[in-house]
Amino acid sequence: MVRTRALTCAIALVSVLLMVGVAAAQLTPEQKLGKLLYFDSNLSKNFNQSCASCHLPTAGFADPDQNLPVSQGSDLTLFGGRNAPSAAYAAFSPFFHWDAATGLYVGGQFWDGRVNSLAEQASGPPTNPVEMALPDKWSVVDRLRVSSKTDPVHPGPNYQGWFKQVYNLDLTAIPPYDPALPVPPGVLEVYDRMAKAIGEFEKSKNFTSFSSKYDYVKAGLATFTPLEARGESVFQGKGKCNACHVDTPTLAPDGGLIPPMFTDFTYDNIGVPANQNMPGGVGPVDNGLGGRADIAAKDPSGAQLGKFKVMSLRNIAKTAPYSHNGIFLTLQQIIHFYGTRDLLSVCGAAGNNDPGFATTCWPAAEQPTNMNVTELGSLNFNADQEAALVAFLRTLTDGYGRKNNLPPLPLPPFPPMP
Ligand code: HEC
Ligand code: HEC
User: Atom 42, ligand 2: which residue's CA is nearest?
Assistant: First the structure.
């Protein structure tokens, strides 16, 4: 979407100044509990999958498996229908809402914004059959109840102590899991607190460290290589990438400034083709935002069909493959798509398995309705511009400071996050 930039370079400067002097926050007890839960594979059917399995810190908080477009579940024969996005910086997505001023939906979690808060999001995976696959909430809470460091087979944290300390909840009061019985009192509260703790952990500096080369360059402590600098120019100029992947600071509700998120959390249809290599076969058309029953009911004209959330580009170099269905294998490929989607011929029936895919042809958009043809699709980058964009996107990977023995950048003011 083209929109005027609300904030100017002057504000960017102020933001850098504001970033100085704010001490890096330590994890609260609730966030520490959330951390234990986030990495605990005992919270899945086959004791083999945690949140981190699909959102691994060293893989940019996305799925480390770059060979599959979607993620394998705890049940190894089952797969989800979408590519796992990074869980980093997701905390900055505002509540899902309709913005009357721009006429756009904004915010929410997931590619289609269907849940509002991180806690609400985190309550899904443990009982999702294609993810952690436990049968119901009580069975998850039961895993918490019995978790013990001394368990010879599946050792885990002492959640009895943690839930008592953080929420004053007594896990020992909950009876052992029995699917034949009605859910006993207390179970849902424990489950909701579990999800809340995970959500709070996702708001911590572990997920939002603002420690990329880009951040150090903007703070005046590093410099772009000439190629990276050319990439930034293309990103802002010919590529118009920043019309959606916004690279200016934004105003937090408390008046503070948040460094660029590389998304405006809106939705768009960039014309991603169907991915023929989905494990389990190509499903029905994925209409993203417009595929949600509530949105379809509000908008029978279909104005949201095929639109997916503009994802943040922070850590993007680590989260291949790309787009909601993972059809693009490399950054160069998706950039080439932005440049030549409407210039190359249409691939044959094999779609992305056509030998010409991404070089001489692109398959047609899975949902051509609402496809953005004004801002992208025929940008026609030359090889240097493509390489420069890739180099620039690589500067968005966190951890640059540590690698280069630079002092940590003070964290920016955090907005009240959903
Ligand atoms: C089997 C892999 C898998 C597991 C396990 C998993 N996720 Fe996800 N996650 C995904 C996929 C796939 C999506 C995108 C789904 C969609 O948009 O419809 C996603 C989306 C998200 C998002 C939304 C990010 C955004 O910017 O919209 C967050 C946050 C998240 N997951 C956190 C978690 C947490 C917390 C857990 C553990 C409780 C978890 N995930 C477990 C695969 C997984
Ligand atoms: C009109 C808005 C818009 C513009 C302009 C735009 N993008 Fe995007 N971008 C999106 C949307 C929406 C998605 C998610 C699309 C999907 O998965 O269906 C996306 C996805 C991406 C992804 C993959 C994200 C992921 O997590 O897999 C990358 C990389 C990316 N864009 C880079 C760029 C670059 C580089 C440019 C400039 C050449 C650009 N974008 C211009 C809206 C835009």
Answer: 310
